[in-house]
Design goal:
The protein is of the alpha+beta class. The chain contains 12 helices and 11 strands. The strands form 4 sheets. A 4-stranded mixed β-sheet has the order 3-6-2-7. Helix 4 packs across helix 11.
Length: 287
């Protein structure tokens, strides 16, 4: 079992040069993004941006946006006091979150061109090529970026997602299990025990960037480096994925909404009303 919570990856060397600290709030984030969006070669055209937004309409985009949404104090789906599923997409804080996300592109211009088509590979490539200062991703992105540009080793730092009301992160757990039909249960069990040993967990982390799930391993010096310390801290704010049968469909609900707003195909109110309607309709169909 390994863990890859979403957090903020940023260019520590650029931040230090500008006298910036890891953003604690979204206001801090915006200030840093504005300072780091610039024309670096003096030709009159912006060639470096503060934030590499993954704005695709898919699970990759949703995996970044939903934790962002929750930092504003609202959830795409949750349970009320009576244990009934509800959505909070109709709340003012949700509208504020979607508006801020779209404004990063439309109003502040801190996002590189191609926002709605830029998925993880494109944004990782932009960071590897010194084009963006910050991205939201899991710790595996560290390895993906430095494999493209080894000169960035030691220059990528991490921090929990900035907050409006609270920090937030997904657990991002994945791992192996033993199939009931397996003819080699004992051998698989031995392999899994091998994987979770401290030394092997740390080797896997060094190669893949993914975090071990054992608390004692997370305290290792290797994981207290600037690259991984923010991810380890982010686990404190992680929430479990809602145990809702059709939860994957919320990916499309939220990503459609921010794409509509960013592309100006709908107003924020129109996009949010549609998102809340789709979410409530989905909830009503569940037993």
């Amino acid at each position: 079992m390994v863990c890859h919570p979403q957090a903020l990856i940023y260019r520590g060397d650029w931040f230090e040069k500008e006298g910036l600290r890891a953003p604690e709030t979204w206001d801090d984030f915006l200030n840093a993004a504005l300072k780091l969006t610039k024309d670096t070669n003096g030709d009159g055209t912006t060639d470096q941006w503060g934030f590499g937004m993954i704005g695709t309409r898919n699970s990759s985009g949703a995996a970044r946006f939903i934790p962002f949404l929750r930092t504003f104090g609202v959830a795409e789906i949750t349970k009320d006091q009576n244990g009934k599923w509800i959505t909070e997409l109709q709340k003012p804080q949700a509208k504020e979150a979607f508006q801020f996300y779209a404004d990063l592109n439309n109003k502040y211009g801190v996002v590189p061109p191609g926002t709605l088509e830029n998925g993880f590979p494109e944004v990782a490539n932009l960071m590897a090529n010194n084009k963006v200062a910050m991205i939201i991703s899991g710790p595996n992105a560290i390895g993906a970026i430095t494999s493209q540009n080894p000169n960035l080793k030691g220059k990528l730092y991490s921090a929990p997602l900035p907050k409006k009301e609270r920090h937030s992160a997904t657990f991002g757990l994945f791992g192996y299990s033993i199939s009931e039909s397996s003819k080699h249960k004992n051998e698989v069990a031995d392999f899994l025990k091998f994987l979770v040993k401290k030394e092997n967990s740390l080797k896997f982390n060094a190669i893949s960037g993914r975090l071990p799930t054992k608390i004692e391993v997370g305290k290792d010096q290797q994981l207290s480096s600037p690259e991984f310390a923010g991810f380890v801290k982010a686990i404190e704010y992680a929430y479990p994925t809602p145990d809702f049968d059709a939860y994957s469909q919320f990916n499309d609900i939220v990503t459609e909404a921010y794409q509509l707003i960013i592309s100006k195909a709908a107003t924020t109110d129109e996009a949010m009303n549609k998102a809340a309607h789709r979410a409530n309709e989905l909830i009503s169909k569940q037993k």
